Amino acid sequence: MADIQGSYDELFSAVPSTLAGFVDEGDVGGAVAVFVDGRPVVDVWAGFADAGRTRAWERDTIVNVFSVTKTMTALCALVLVDRGKLDPDAPVARYWPEFAAAGKRHVLVRHLLSHTAGLPDWVGPVEELYDWPAATARLARQAPLWEPGTAAGYHSLTQGFLVGEVLRRITGRSVGEFFAAEVAGPLGADFHLGLGPEHDSRVAPTLPPPGRDEDYTAGAANPDATPADPATAPATAFRLRDGNGIAWRRAQIPAASGYGNARSAALVQSLLACGGTVGGVRVLSPEGCERAREVQFEGEDRRLGMPARYGLGYGLFGNALGWGGWGGALVWVDPGERMAIAYVTNQMREPAADNRGIELVMAAQDGLTGLRA
Fold first, then answer.
1. What's the DSSP call for residue 100?
2. DSSP state of 201
């Protein structure tokens, strides 16, 4: 069995055992953390940080968690709502006047957070993702593909720029700067939006699924779409080699370029599990936490091709909320149990065959049963 590092409560031993099983099955490396009542009951890691299996996964190894980043950006928005600086029912153009172009005067802030704004696809050059003014200007010029608020289509890359520019207009700071100062810093969380070169040695590059190479593309690129139908026009293909590039690390792409470990992701999202306060640090009010679970959309997602239920910036799953990232990362929050779970990995699997995050959630729930007994 794979060598598990870290610590865990014996009641939750199924969690590290499950992680060890992933490595035994061929995964290169990964980490999982479970927080209950704002405190870690599992904080473990295993495997290696590189494809050659020469560099062990360490306590401070960090990895790109792709769309789990959306939960961090959403949290920043909820903080501003809590402070009365951002109104979810306001038109986006109130904060970002240029956004009113191309029939978007009536797009509301809540539409951005719930993937219902009608701007799901990135259709510019990949290189423009690294240029904040150019990326946001492109989205401001773009017309919605449907009447905002009437349908949902996963905004895989665009959501971070849309929400992030609203935050920047209000605060004068980038999402990464705001997150560092108002969330990660006070909590002591090792999570970053916009990664400096001083952290490069800690990064575990993402590895493609077995049999694939770095030209592996994200499914959200909608490869089966036809250009003849503008509602399903293909987005720019985003390759794994782009996500592993230095330009990606340095840029702020608040929907997908967050770097952290399982410990930091679970710590931050424990705020929503614990009424907005963790370790004596209050970031949100209890009302602000509840706001995240207000249902904004329920039905078929036009981009994912499957049923979805969205709150304000989070996916909703029964009484839980959270989101997953390309390649397998997951954050899962259960406010009723005051539990947050995070899983990160450098080993992608094909999406249809990847149940690792949910297996870890189930293992953690088994431990919780014993803890609450």
1. G
2. G
Task: State the amino acid at position 340 in one-letter form.
Answer: A
241: which 2 tokens?
């080699």
Residues β-bridged to residue 87: none
And the tokens for 106?
């009536």
| Cβ pair 221, 238 in contact under 8 A | yes
**Cα torsion 212, 263, 79, 289: sign:** positive
Q: What residues are paired with 203 via a beta bridge?
A: 62
Cα–Cα distance, 349 to 331 (Å, whole number): 17
Neighbouring-strand partners of residue 56? 48
For the stretch 96-114, pLDDT in tens is: 999 999 999 999 999 999 9
Catalytic positions, please? 67
Longest dimension (CA), the chain: 58
Beta carbons within 10 angstroms of residue 89's beta carbon: 7
Alpha carbons within 13 angstroms on the beta-carbon side of residue 323 total 30
How many Cα atoms within 13 Å fall on the side-chain side of residue 206? Answer: 34
Pick from 241, 62, 19, 28: nearest CA to 8: 19
Rg (CA), the chain: 19
* Residue 145, C-beta contacts closer than 8 angstroms, at least 6 positions apart: 118, 119, 120, 121, 153, 230, 231
In tens, the pLDDT along 241-281 reads 999 999 999 999 999 999 999 999 999 999 999 999 999 99
Please tell me the distance from the alpha carbon of residue 34 to that of residue 247, in angstroms, as a whole number.
32
| Distance (Å, whole) CA 253 – CA 258 | 8
C-beta of residue 91 within 8 angstroms of C-beta of residue 277? no
Torsion sign, CA atoms 133, 156, 35, 59: negative
Angle between helices 262-273 and 69-82 (to 10 degrees): 40
Residue with token string 């704004």: 117
Q: Which sign, positive or negative, has the C-alpha torsion 57, 60, 66, 68? A: positive
Report the C-alpha gap between 238 and 215 in whole angstroms. 9
The pTM score is: 0.95
